[in-house]
Every structure is written in structure tokens, then in C-alpha cells.
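ligand=iron/sulfur cluster
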Amino acid sequence: MEQKKLGFGLMRLPLKDSRDQTSVDMEQLKKMVDAFLENGFTYFDTAYMYHDGVSETAIGEALAPRHPRDSFTLATKMPLMIIRTEADQERIFKEQLVKCKVDHFDYYMAHNVCNLFYPIAQKLKTFEFMQRMKDEGKIRKIGFSFHDDAELLEKVLNDHPEVDFVQLQINYVDWDSAAIQSHKCYDIAVKHGKEVIVMEPVKGGMLAKVPADVSKIFREYEPGLSDVSWAIRFAASHDGVGIVLSGMSEIDQLMDNMSYMKDFEPMNDKEKDVALRAASIINGTIAIPCTNCRYCVKSCPRDVAIPEYFSLYNTDVLANPAGFSIQSAYYLNLTKVHGKASDCIACGNCENECPQHIKIIDMLKDVVERFESNPPF
Ligand code: SF4
Ligand code: SF4
């Protein structure tokens, strides 16, 4: 089966109620899944943790009972952040097969390998477990998703040469980032001969809403292409990249992504230069590099809506409204049902979870300064 390079990321599914991550709109999802497959795309990426555990159940309903098993490729992940024993791994893996209604996964990975969770994977022998499942025919390819620096990636790949692939955060904004190290990590994965699966090519949606001067540069080069296409095509244009995941929550996003990825041609050097020029402009404007992965929110004892507040903050900084700020109004609304940024007690739980290594406690102080010192009403 030929594999096209666009993968359907299942961490931002269409919802019936935007405040409830479990309220997946199944009719919409089924339509999107069907359209994706009809256009020759095959790869779906879910995880135990996505949508509070509902992503696997939702794709289990939308995919396997409705399409032949050999017509799709399904990936999911072992949640290193919650397993405590080797028995947890066995239990969760069995649960995942049942939820997804399949007898094997095509790609299976240790979720969020980083300095915090790699010791857990080592202690619980997660890689050995995945290898055993592969030997038993319940997994086709094993790997890990990675959120740390190039030095740790080198170590993990030296420790575990048996892995088939690595899932990395690659986008044109993070390509030369000191924190994310996309380029360095990509080079190491290629050096070790691993297939690269790309996550966060649009940086949590940030590169779908680029500043006007960046959008103008893109339009001048190629008027018919969307801003988001530059992000996805950039990630897909590197040798060794097998799949670029895009978290799609609307059918229009899906149709746009498929339009330029159906007969994908890698970017030429001039296009890559345009993307990297865009990166330097955007990097000068983003205040907080939050990707909305939501790993931080569950561990917060004060229910602070961290990613929502950071998103509002970034937009407000970019928009820099002179008077009334709509972001400020949204902030006030959110604080009715969540803890305020000023409710943070600096326990540090969230910072331990953040794959982007954001200084969340400090950043929340900036949020307080921006939104709580001048309420909109
Ligand atoms: S440091 Fe603040 S925002 Fe982070 S988990 Fe603790 S209370 Fe919540
Ligand atoms: S602050 Fe960090 S962990 Fe929380 S949503 Fe943003 S990137 Fe994810």
C-alpha cells in the first residue's frame, strides 16, 4: 500500500462542545475519515492521552468497523506519563487494541520520551515490551515520540537501535530553535537511519495564523497556496520523513491539506529559504511558544487554563490592541470556570510536564500583568 506523506493527527478532533474534550462530533469525524481514505491517504495517529482518553475510542468507531484493515495505517502510544508498573503496560496495550477495534497497530511508540520520562521507560522496560509485542505480531513498527534535546535523542537511539522510527517536532519556526532543536534532532535520526514521523508541523495551529507580513511573503511567492501549506510542506520536504501529522478539526482544513499533499512535490531550495525567512519574522513576534498539547493541565491543582491563557496572551501581544481587547474579555470569561493565572501557587507540576520547557510560572505572571491589571469591563 503506497503511503502518502500527510497523516491525520487525532489530538484536535471536531467537538460538539469546545469546553468538553470528550464531546467528539462522531458524524463529522466519520466524514473526515472517509474523505481522507477516499483521497488515498492512510495514516492515523492517536494516543491513550488524547481527548481525555476518547481519541482512541472515537477512531475505533470511525475506522476499523467501517474500512478494511489493510486500507489504513494506525499509530498509537504507550503513555509513559501515567504508567507505574510493567503490568500497567500490559493492561493499557490490551485496552488500546479493544478501544481501537484492531488486532495490531502499524506504528506503536513510547509517548513523550524526554529527560523526565525516559528513566520510567527504562525502568519499566517499555522498549522491550514493544519489541515483544512486535515479535508477537501485534505491532508492525516500534518507535518513540520525542520532546527533548539532541543529546538525549542520541543516547536513546544508541540505547535502542531496535526502533524503526522516531516522531519529532519539526516545523520551520523550530528548525533552528535552541530549545526544540528540530534540525539537530532530525540530523541525528537520519544518521541512525530511522524513519522520521513529524508532529507539530503547524506548531499547535500557530503557523496557520501567521502575521500579515509573513502571509504577504507567501502569497507573493505562490498566490494559490494557504499559509498552513508552507508549514506542512516544509516538514515533508526533508529526506527520511515518512509522515507529517496534522491535527485536523474541520473538514475545510482536511480538504486544504489534501489538495497540496495528494501529489506532493518537495519544496525547492528557494521555497525553503522563504519558509526560514518567515521563521525569523515569526520568532521575533511569538511571546510564549506553547503548542497547546495540554500535557500540563491535568496536574494543576488550581485548574489554571494554561494553554488557553497563553494563546490569548500571544494573540494579544501580536494584535497589541490600543483600547478594548477581545482577548481580555475571553480571559475574563475563562476565569469564571477555571482558576485565574493569579491563582497559581507555583507548585511546578505543570513545568515538569511541558515538552516545550516553558517557564510556565513566570509566563503566568505576564498573563496576570496583561489581563488582570486592566479588566475589560
Ligand atoms: S505551577 Fe501554577 S499553573 Fe502550574 S500546576 Fe502549579 S498551580 Fe498550576
Ligand atoms: S504550556 Fe507546555 S504543556 Fe502546557 S499546553 Fe503549552 S506546550 Fe503543552
